[in-house]
Write a structure and sequence with these properties.
alpha/beta, 11% strand
Length: 385
C-alpha cells in the first residue's frame, strides 16, 4: 500500500503519477488506510481545475413509466406495484420556474424510457419554452433513457444541452446478467447511443451502478477506464440499493454490505476525479440514502454537483427506483439553505446563478474543432464545474 500512497501523494502535489488498471483495482480493494491519501489527491486535483464551487442541478422526475425491465430497478416494466404517472407541461414548467426564481440554472428532466411520440413532442415543447424564456442562461439536462438517434437530435434542436445515460457496467457479460436477454436490453446499443450523444455536441454524461451482486473491483476498474475512453463530460454514479420488487433483490446476500458499497462509491468518485480532472461529478441521491453524510463525503471525494429534487411532492413517492429514497424538504429555499451549510462544512461553496458547464466540455469542443465556427449548436460555453 505504501507504493499506492506514494503515487497518490505525488498526484496531490501536482506531480505526474499515472494510475494503471492494477493500481485502480488495488485501491478499490485496499483497507480504509488508503482513503485519506486518495481523497486528498482527488480534492487537490479538483481544486487545481474547477475550484471549490458546487453547482446545483434541479431534478424533475417527469414520468415513471418505462419500457425497460432491468432486474435492479423498481420502475421496471413488469413491476405491478408502481402507480404510473406522467407530469403535464404546466406542472413541469411550474417546477422549472420555481427553480429558476431560486437561482438554479441547470435542470434535469428525468423519466423512465418511453418512446411514445406524444411524450417526446411534449418534452420538445418544454425545451423550446425554456429556451424562449431563458435563452443561453439555462442548461436543460435530459435523462430519458436510450433513445433513437433521430429522437435525440430532435431533443437537441428543441433546446436540450446535456444528456445523462448510465452505462451501468462496462462488462458486457455482467450487463447481460442484470438485464433480460431481449431486443431492447443490449449493451452495444447503449454504448452506441452514448457515442452518438458525444459526437453530436451534447454535454454527455454517464456512470455506473456500484456494489451489486457479482461485480468485482477489477470490473469497477474497467468501468473507470471505459468512462475515460468515452471521454464523458459529466458523471453520476451511486451505490446499488435493493428494491423488494426486483429480481436482483433475491440475491442481495451476494452483494457487499451497504457500508462497503458507500466506500466503493466514494473511491470511484475520487479515482474518476483524478483520471478526469475537469468533468462534473455529482454526489448522488443514492449515496445520500445509504449515508446521511453522503453529500459531504461525496464532495470531499471529488464531487462538484448537488441535485435538489424539484418533483412535486404528490409524484415524488412514486419515482421509486430503490427502497428508502432519502426524504427531503418540500421547500426549495430550505433545501438550498441546508445544502449551502453542508457544502460549507467541508469548505466548499454552493453556487447559484451559474449552470456550471464542465470545463472538460469546452476543452473537448475546442480540441475537436467545433469552436472554429463557434460553440456547438445551442450552447454557450461558460461557467465552471
Amino acid at each position: 500500500m505504501k507504493f499506492l500512497e506514494g503515487k497518490l501523494d505525488d498526484i496531490a502535489a501536482g506531480r505526474e503519477a499515472p494510475l494503471s488498471r492494477r493500481d485502480l483495482t488495488d485501491i478499490l480493494e485496499s483497507g480504509p488506510g488508503i482513503d485519506g491519501p486518495l481523497f486528498r489527491a482527488a480534492s487537490a486535483v479538483l481544486g487545481r481545475n474547477s475550484g471549490p464551487g458546487v453547482y446545483l442541478r434541479g431534478i424533475i422526475e417527469i414520468s415513471n413509466a418505462c419500457q425497460k425491465n432491468c432486474f435492479y430497478c423498481g420502475l421496471r416494466r413488469d413491476n405491478p406495484g408502481v402507480a404510473r404517472y406522467r407530469m403535464n407541461s404546466r406542472e413541469v414548467m411550474e417546477a422549472l420556474t420555481h427553480g429558476w426564481n431560486a437561482g438554479l440554472r441547470s435542470f434535469l428532466l428525468q423519466s423512465g424510457e418511453r418512446l411514445g411520440g406524444d411524450f417526446i413532442e411534449e418534452v420538445c415543447a418544454i425545451l423550446a419554452e425554456c429556451r424562449s424564456r431563458w435563452g443561453d442562461s439555462v442548461r436543460m439536462v435530459l435523462s430519458l433513457g436510450e433513445l433513437p438517434a433521430d429522437v435525440l437530435d430532435r431533443l437537441r434542436e428543441a433546446g436540450g444541452s446535456r444528456y445523462l445515460l448510465r452505462i451501468e457496467t462496462s462488462d458486457r457479460g455482467l450487463y447481460d446478467r442484470v438485464h433480460p436477454c431481449d431486443g431492447i436490453h443490449d449493451w452495444s446499443a447503449r454504448d452506441a447511443c452514448l457515442r452518438h450523444l458525444r459526437a453530436t455536441g451534447w454535454q454527455t454524461g454517464s456512470g455506473v451502478l456500484i456494489g451489486f451482486p457479482w461485480q468485482t473491483a477489477s470490473v469497477l476498474a474497467g468501468d473507470l477506464e471505459y468512462l475515460v475512453d468515452l471521454d464523458i463530460d459529466m458523471c453520476g454514479m451511486g451505490p446499488w440499493i435493493e428494491h423488494k420488487d426486483t429480481p436482483l433483490d433475491k440475491v442481495r446476500e451476494q452483494a457487499p454490505p451497504r457500508a462497503r458499497r458507500v466506500s466503493l462509491t466514494l473511491r470511484m468518485i475520487a479515482l474518476l476525479r483524478i483520471l478526469m480532472p475537469d468533468i462534473n461529478i455529482s454526489a448522488t441521491t443514492a449515496l445520500q440514502t445509504l449515508d446521511e453524510e453522503g453529500l459531504e463525503k461525496g464532495l470531499e471525494a471529488g464531487g462538484n454537483v448537488f441535485m435538489p429534487n424539484l418533483t412535486p411532492p404528490g409524484y415524488r413517492a412514486d419515482y421509486n427506483l430503490y427502497e428508502g429514497k432519502t426524504a427531503v424538504a418540500d421547500d426549495l429555499e430550505s433545501m438550498i439553505t441546508e445544502g449551502r451549510k453542508r457544502c460549507e462544512s467541508v469548505r466548499r461553496l454552493l453556487v447559484l446563478g451559474d449552470p456550471g458547464d464542465p470545463l472538460h466540455y469546452g476543452r473537448r469542443l475546442a480540441t475537436e474543432g467545433w469552436m472554429s465556427g463557434g460553440a456547438a449548436p445551442g450552447d454557450a460555453i461558460g461557467g465552471r464545474g
